[in-house]
Design brief:
- By secondary structure, this protein is an alpha/beta fold.
- It has one domain (39-58, 65-303): Alpha-Beta Complex (Spore Coat Polysaccharide Biosynthesis Protein SpsA, Chain A).
- It has twelve helices and nine strands.
- A four-stranded mixed β-sheet has the order 2-1-3-6. The chain has a three-stranded mixed β-sheet with strand order 4-9-8. A two-stranded parallel ribbon has the order 5-7.
- Helix 4 (94-101) links the parallel strand 1 and strand 2 (109-115).
- Helix 2 runs parallel beside helix 5 (145-160), helix 2 packs across helix 8 (250-258) and helix 5 (145-160) crosses helix 8 (250-258).
- The longest helix has 31 residues, at 3-33.
- The protein is globular, with a radius of gyration of 23 Å.
- The site of one 2-acetamido-2-deoxy-beta-D-glucopyranose has 2 residues, from loops.
Length: 364
């Protein structure tokens, strides 16, 4: 070894000492439990979330029913739905979503996509998904990376457009069950759709997120990081479960990107992998702790958990797709109808597309 190389080596070891001291414990725990987080990811997220939670658009006052307000109400921009797609494969159902958004006014919606950068994906060269990708990081099933990816989507959508009023989280396996105008009307104007007894527009909008207090194996999920790991922030009485796919109001989206305390708990790796689905607990727990009355406690995305295998819901195959299936998937005990559904195998595209076109023809 040349003398100066040795010197450089010694010097760089010396330089890296403080880094090891500062980051050592985290890095060691992480590599030990295979947590796919780097300190850099965490820092990037923190600056994005801080920006999103402190940035104020110059929006008109929302809750002042003065004459001026009533006048400006007429000219106020319309609220938009931010469609957030979380994916780690191609967006198989892009043609269906293209049809869903076809001819719809672009001032009523926005689309944002978080795609795992470690997977190869065919970039859409046309249609509604073109150029809608946000800076993304690696995701893994049953890990807190899915929480981070969702929070990144919310933060980008919050920053991007002050008119984004509802934030609907979807995946590449989701399809719409109704037309865009139906979805828009349901979220913003329907008086029967949301909680009965409250009439709009005086009512503030609620988030459609499943929040369950009782579920099999909830205790096992709670102690998956250790018996006392969630304390004192999250007591067992506060621990909730629900579907990963939700539709949040803007105040709730803000609340989620502002959170630091619960994230510090939920980002910890689990000892038991088969009891660890942080994304199914973090959002319902956080929102039920912060604003239980602001949540409907049910989701708008239908999923069939009958005969579940390995934490995966039932996945429909092409031969099952029919007009009857779509009608059955819309049926809900909670609201007037489900708006979205999952999961379908990619080769369901053709039958779904045919159904969707037929439906549009009949309904228009
Ligand atoms: C993605 O594609 C590139 C180039 O085609 C290839 O080199 C790489 O191995 C692929 N990565 C994965 C994860 O398939
Ligand atoms: C949702 O559930 C919580 C309990 O977790 C309850 O306090 C709240 O009232 C429920 N919200 C509605 C709209 O029923
Ligand atoms: C849900 O999945 C089961 C199979 O696990 C199937 O028999 C049932 O028909 C499905 N329900 C609906 C509404 O499609
Ligand atoms: C509605 O609730 C009933 C009774 O709990 C249940 O049998 C049925 O499957 C539910 N329907 C849907 C569409 O969830």
């Amino acid at each position: 070894m040349l003398p100066h190389t040795a010197l450089v080596l010694a010097f760089s070891i010396l330089l890296s000492l403080p880094v090891i001291v500062i980051l050592g414990p985290t890095v060691l725990t992480q590599s030990h439990l295979h947590l796919p987080f780097s300190p850099q990811d965490e820092l990037d997220d923190l600056s994005l979330f801080t920006l999103a939670s402190t940035f104020h658009h110059h929006a008109p006052p929302q809750h002042k029913p003065s004459r001026i307000f009533q006048f400006s109400y007429q000219t106020k921009p319309k609220p938009k739905i931010a469609f957030l797609f979380l994916t780690n494969t191609d967006l198989h159902f892009a043609p269906i979503w293209n049809l869903f958004f076809h001819d719809q006014p672009t001032n009523l919606y926005n689309i944002y996509i978080h795609k795992d950068p470690s997977v190869n994906l065919t970039r859409p060269v046309e249609g509604v998904f073109k150029n809608r990708f946000i800076p993304s990081k690696k995701t893994a099933r049953a890990s807190p990376t899915l929480i981070s990816a969702t929070r990144r989507l919310l933060a980008h959508a919050l920053l991007d457009d002050p008119d984004n009023a509802y934030f609907a989280l979807l995946s590449q396996h989701c399809i719409p069950l109704h037309s865009f105008p139906y979805v828009y009307r349901s979220l913003f104007f329907s008086t029967t759709f949301d909680s009965p007894g409250l009439t709009r527009p005086t009512q503030t909008h609620r988030s459609f997120i499943e929040i369950l207090t009782h579920a099999p194996r909830l205790w096992n999920r709670y102690i998956a990081r250790g018996r006392f790991a969630m304390l004192p922030e999250v007591k067992y009485e506060d621990f909730r479960v629900g579907s990963q796919f939700f539709t949040l109001t803007r105040p709730h989206a803000l609340l989620v990107v502002r959170d630091r305390a619960l994230w510090r708990k939920f980002r910890s790796p689990c000892y038991k992998k088969d009891e660890c689905y942080p994304e199914e607990h973090y959002f319902p727990t956080l929102l039920s702790m912060m604003d239980p009355e602001g949540c409907t406690n049910y989701t708008l995305t239908h999923v069939n958990w009958t005969g579940t295998k390995g934490g995966h819901p039932y996945t429909y195959k092409p031969q099952e797709v029919s007009v009857e299936l779509i009608s059955r998937l819309r049926e809900s005990n909670f609201s007037e109808s489900y708006l979205f559904a999952r999961k379908f195998t990619p080769d369901c595209l053709q039958p779904l597309l045919w159904n969707f076109s037929e439906d549009r023809r009949i309904c228009s």
